[in-house]
Amino acid sequence: MKLAIKRIGFLVVVLGLWQLVYSLGVFEDIVFPSPIKVGVALYEGFADGDFIKALGASFRHLFMGLSLAILFGTVIGVLLGKSKQADETAGMYLIALQSIPSIVWVPLAIMLFGFSEFAVVFVVVLGGTFVMALNVRTAIYSVPPHLVRAARTMGTNGIPLFFRVEVPSSIPYFMTGLRLAWAFSWRALMAGELLSNGPGLGYSLRYAQDYARMDQVIAIIIIIGVIGAVVDQVVFSKLERNVRKRWGLLKS
Amino acid sequence: MFLSIDQVGKTFNGKGGDGFEVFSGIDLNIEENQFVSLLGPSGCGKSTLLSMVAGLEDVTTGSIRLEGEEIRKAGPDRGMVFQQPSLFPWLNVKENVLFPLKRHGSKKEAEERVDRFLQMVHLSRFKENYTHELSGGMQQRVAIARALAMDPKVLLMDEPFGALDEQTRHILHEELMKIWQETQKTILFVTHSIQEAIKLSDRVVVMGTRPGRIIADFAVDLPRPRKRDDERVIDLERKVMDLLEGEINKVLKEELHHEASY
After folding, report:
1. Which domains does chain B have, with CATH numbers?
2. Which part of the chain is the ABC transmembrane type-1 domain (chain A) (predicted)?
3. Using the beta-carbon criterion (under 8 Å), do A248 and B89 form an inter-chain contact?
């Protein structure tokens, strides 16, 4: 309860400062809307369904892109984790690829696929795949050798060993991979949509900018932030924590 | 012979092609239902030898046979208990013991076996618990139950109580004695504790180091339960201690020399 009060208090202070700067007229109204105006923009956006439509499109892109990223990332990660040959050959490039900010892929995607939704999904896939692959690789590496030895003394080898020991033992790292893949994909999605021809939240953001609707711009930024935080806290962090607890990696 | 280790040697391949020989020419025969301890200072290769019997390490030279059949890889006819309990944290106690029984026989039969062996180690109450909710001693008992549940011909134990506190170790010694008498398993038990070896075994095989080899083989012909203050136990302890002292000094001297050369 105390935590909630602290957090709400902080928000009130930020809103107060915002209102103060607005009231002092430091910036022109058109570039610096008041909190109330942004609130109204938020309300109107949802009321007339524009934001809902944009959100729906964004989640569709995200769902497709993230699913593919998880799939590709897992396959690449398992391959690199299991085969020393593959890791020595390609492992280093994976780290290089993962360090490329996803917005960098946008021009490439547009040239390849035009201003289509597919281009957006492509960027999302690239945004999530490499971080997923790196975490799955770590997950495979981190299977404790003594568990593998124990399983072998019980006559478990080969494919059953992989599915009965290595896979379940990897799940905590896999969950971290999921959380990070989501976070990277979400960022990539916004980068991709910003330069796309819509629909999507990122596209709405640019559209608002083109029409100098600063209240809408800020409203959309708030939506992006809130969704990012809520999905992380309510879905992925929670999932990760529960798994770690269950695996005995966390004091309960 | 039930378990025969015949002229067995082990060399680990070094990086520059020069191998490191742990031991060579080890001969050891173990009879069925015997409780045999391998005792020695660190570095003598006792754990390596046990891993070779388990099939987790390759045999460089010689051969190991169980009931006449040469051991080439790990299998459920040799159960192993490690120093770390090595339980699967994503499974509860019951599922851990069930692990080696999956896909063998009926489910009902398997569950009955699990119940029986969990009862034997007095953990029936904790069937549904996850392993990280148990103490170290309890985890090790689950590991013992798991190894026994697949009904191995030999039970291999690699310093299974080494990481436990004194009291827990004593309790588990007694439990292990009971289990051994009840199941009549052949047990090969690796330890560096002289007391532990003498307290538990029918036979204590003492190993030396640099190079690893068997330096003595005692039959412990004393009635159980053996008391620490029994004259005969103390006598035997002293005898083994004298034997090992030379070996331990050798290791220390070599390590000090190694240090000095840096």
Report:
1. 1-77+152-232 (3.40.50.300), 85-151 (no CATH)
2. 55-235
3. yes
